[in-house]
């Protein structure tokens, strides 16, 4: 009727961002929006001139954090030894990249080493045979969901912002491209994994750092191990996200990684 009010109309409630998304958490857990194209953020960075040595002993792994200690034990148990060593190399390579390529940035000064360690340890958890066969999901997505559920479980009780940052970075750690944005944590994990797997941006880390990290965490046939994992996933799941890189291109890059050739 004219002039009547429809009391049945739903009231639109304003959408609020999660209370975890405070400015402090954005910086602490690496949520800062960062260009997805690595060349964009590395342009004019000091990587153009080989950085100095930064050894394993110079980088503190946050094993004094109870959540990190538990996740490290979990990763040791669940991951094959070469994959675990790769995960540890990723932490040290990522730490060196942050320290030497972003020395004065707010991200470098505020990013939690624990969040970086958790992401490094869990980023390939989806590649285990059990986890590969348990789902139709691509390994990065499966790994992200496993990490999120693990970290938010009662046993681990990670803060929401930290658990979600780890999951986001794992899901997107093969999201290589030139457009759009990714989290700072996700970009650092991409740079470190590409460096270890295919020798991407070879001058971003010094030879002394590379030698020391590989000495501390030997490769043990990592190239062949990871190449086999890639082939197996694509065979089982021809829709998987890895295919966006290109199967042969990726496998050839892993097996032909000259930067890491010669390390045990």
SSE map:
Blueprint: H1 23-28, E1 33-35, H2 38-42, H3 66-78, H4 81-101, H5 106-110, H6 113-122, H7 129-133, H8 139-152, H9 160-171, E2 181-183, H10 184-198, H11 207-216, H12 222-236, H13 247-255
Antiparallel strand pairs: 1-2
Helix pairs in contact: 3-6, 4-6, 4-10, 4-11, 6-9, 8-9, 9-10, 12-13
In short:
The chain has 264 residues and is mainly α. Helix content is 53%, strand content 2%. Residues 83-198 form the HD domain.
What would you say this structure looks like, in words?
The longest helix is centred in the middle third of the chain and has 21 residues, at 81-101. Helix content is 53%, strand content 2%. It has helices at 23-28, 38-42, 66-78, 81-101, 106-110, 113-122, 129-133, 139-152, 160-171, 184-198, 207-216, 222-236, 247-255; strands at residues 33-35, 181-183. The protein contains 13 helices and two strands, in the order H-E-H-H-H-H-H-H-H-H-E-H-H-H-H. A two-stranded antiparallel sheet has the order 1-2. Mean pLDDT is 90; it is low at 1-6. The chain is an all-alpha fold and 264 residues long.
